[in-house]
């Protein structure tokens, strides 16, 4: 769903064979895979071992895997944050990305500071977040999580649904991490699913509805999601939600 965002960032910063990229919260590795296809040397880190396992399958396929850090010379995947990335192997990074719009401000600040210490002076650091709420249909659907989670964890669920969506959130994040904002952009990233079942399954798998499931039950969450998604169901049965994502280029 975020491929247009990744493509826009890679094109703007001319990612290529001379790029040494560090991806914070790399998840299942799609953005790294796309950068690698452009010739970049990529290192990804993520504290979620399940998502990192998917990244290994994409980027470092092997009959057996499981080493904490694996490398093929151009690709490294490291469990944890950037503070776990070996800083003495090879030249410093020339680009850092934090493209997961679901990561909270407080979680990113120390990670960005650690990553900045591994990058060349003046290197770009790219941050991503949701665009204006009125331009993000999926944000309205995600608010189902906040309502169903009450009173158990409404604050956390609501924050997860709208993280880094304010006008100056990305700039504030960059400054708090000691970075200098240096330009931004917006990218259309529609979320599309072939049918209602796929849409519900995909949204539940994000983890943003975990608190709602704990407060009610999964059947209730799925029912409420179906109702919220009905407005985005097209005549052919597909689901399409128009969204705008914003990215900020900052400098170390």
From TrEMBL:
Gene3D superfamilies: Vaccinia Virus protein VP39. Residues 78-92 have a biased composition (Low complexity). Residues 22-63 form the Methyltransferase type domain. It holds the Pfam family Methyltransf_11. GO terms for molecular function: S-adenosylmethionine-dependent methyltransferase activity. Transmembrane segments: none annotated. This is Methyltransferase type 11 domain-containing protein. It comes from Actinacidiphila glaucinigra.
């Amino acid at each position: 769903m975020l491929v247009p965002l990744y493509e826009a960032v890679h094109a703007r910063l001319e990612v290529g064979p001379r790029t040494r990229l560090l991806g914070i919260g790399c998840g299942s590795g799609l953005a790294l895979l796309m950068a690698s296809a452009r010739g970049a040397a990529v290192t990804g880190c993520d504290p979620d071992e399940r998502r990192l396992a998917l990244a290994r399958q994409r980027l470092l396929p092997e009959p057996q895997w499981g080493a904490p850090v694996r490398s093929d010379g151009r690709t490294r995947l490291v469990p944890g944050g950037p503070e776990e990335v070996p800083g003495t192997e090879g030249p410093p990074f020339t680009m850092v990305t934090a493209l997961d719009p679901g990561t909270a401000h407080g979680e990113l600040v120390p990670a960005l500071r650690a990553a900045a210490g591994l990058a060349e002076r003046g290197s770009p650091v790219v941050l991503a977040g949701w665009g204006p709420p009125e331009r993000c249909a999926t944000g309205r659907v995600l608010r189902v999580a906040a309502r169903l989670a009450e009173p158990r964890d409404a604050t956390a669920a609501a924050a997860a649904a709208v993280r880094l969506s304010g006008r100056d959130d990305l700039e504030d994040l960059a400054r708090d991490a000691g970075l200098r904002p240096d330009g931004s952009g917006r990218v259309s990233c529609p979320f599309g699913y072939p049918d209602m079942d796929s849409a519900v399954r995909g949204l539940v798998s994000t983890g943003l509805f975990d608190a709602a499931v704990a407060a009610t039950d999964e059947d209730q969450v799925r029912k409420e999601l179906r109702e919220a998604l009905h407005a985005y169901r097209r005549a052919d049965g597909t689901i399409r939600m128009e969204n705008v994502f914003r990215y900020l280029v900052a400098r170390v």
